[in-house]
Structures are given as C-alpha cells and as structure tokens.
C-alpha cells in the first residue's frame, strides 16, 4: 500500500478501547503515545489488537504551537 501522507510513524498498539461507535487506539512510537479516534468498524476491518504493529498516519493542514 502507498499513501500520500508523509507523516507515517511505525509503532506498536498498546491499547484499544471501544465505545458505542468510536474506538481509541493508542500506539507507542518509541516511548511517546499517539492516540487515534477511529470507528469500531475500522478496528474490526484492520484487525487491530494490543501488541500488533501499526502506523500512526498524521495528515493535518495546520500545526499549532503554544507556550505557557
């Protein structure tokens, strides 16, 4: 598979929490955790599970920076 998004970070799934319609998938990418909110159907279709390798693919039009 090829994808146009350039921000692809490989990691390992550490948690999958299903809600009524949306799941939260937490991916460890070298000690930092990225959380994605995706449909339960996508979790099932991709067969996502704790311990499985996955990519966090980040596609955003803006990146904001804040300081205290």
TrEMBL record:
<dbReference type="InterPro" id="IPR004606">
    <property type="entry name" value="Mop_domain"/>
</dbReference>
<dbReference type="Pfam" id="PF03459">
    <property type="entry name" value="TOBE"/>
</dbReference>
<dbReference type="InterPro" id="IPR005116">
    <property type="entry name" value="Transp-assoc_OB_typ1"/>
</dbReference>
<dbReference type="InterPro" id="IPR008995">
    <property type="entry name" value="Mo/tungstate-bd_C_term_dom"/>
</dbReference>
<dbReference type="GO" id="GO:0015689">
    <property type="term" value="P:molybdate ion transport"/>
</dbReference>
<feature type="domain" description="Mop">
    <location>
        <begin position="2"/>
        <end position="67"/>
    </location>
</feature>
<keyword id="KW-0500">Molybdenum</keyword>
<protein>
    <submittedName>
        <fullName>Molybdopterin-binding protein</fullName>
    </submittedName>
</protein>
